[in-house]
């Protein structure tokens, strides 16, 4: 799901779980994951994703946003 797009965009250290790669990971429960955003209220976090790491930093821990904002714009070949 992520390895092919990362390879296609020439991202050298993303898309697969491997030593030395950037840790962008989502831990989710397939039985409870759901988007709660609506057209009237679009800024809602999804349910069923208790932990999210971006660049190795916890952004969501136990379902709560940590305040961390380690993401950045990626360009082809980075």
Describe this structure in words.
This protein is mainly beta and 78 residues long. It has a domain at 23-67. Helix content is 8%, strand content 18%. The protein contains one helix and four strands; from the N terminus they run H-E-E-E-E. The protein has one helix spanning 3-8; strands at 25-27, 51-54, 57-61, 64-65. The radius of gyration is 14 Å and the shape is globular.
Keywords:
78 residues, mainly beta, four-stranded antiparallel sheet
| Sequence of strands across the biggest β-sheet | 1-2-3-4
User: What gyration radius follows from the Cα positions, in whole Å?
Assistant: 14 Å
The number of helical elements comes to 1
How far from one another are the termini? Answer: 19 Å
Percent in helix: under 10%
The strand count comes to 4
Main sheet overview: 4 strands, antiparallel
- Reading the helices and strands in chain order gives HEEEE
- The coarse silhouette is globular
The structure class reads mainly beta
Strand % is 15-25%
Poorly predicted sequence stretches spanning 5 or more consecutive residues: none
Query: What do the pLDDT scores average to?
Result: 91
């Amino acid at each position: 799901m992520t390895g092919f797009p990362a390879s296609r965009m020439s991202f050298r250290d993303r898309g697969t779980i491997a030593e030395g790669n950037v840790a962008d990971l989502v831990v989710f429960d397939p039985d409870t994951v759901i988007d709660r955003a609506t057209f009237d209220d679009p800024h809602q976090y999804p349910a069923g994703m208790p932990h999210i790491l971006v660049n190795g930093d916890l952004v969501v821990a136990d379902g709560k946003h940590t305040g961390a904002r380690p993401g950045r714009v990626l360009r082809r070949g980075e």
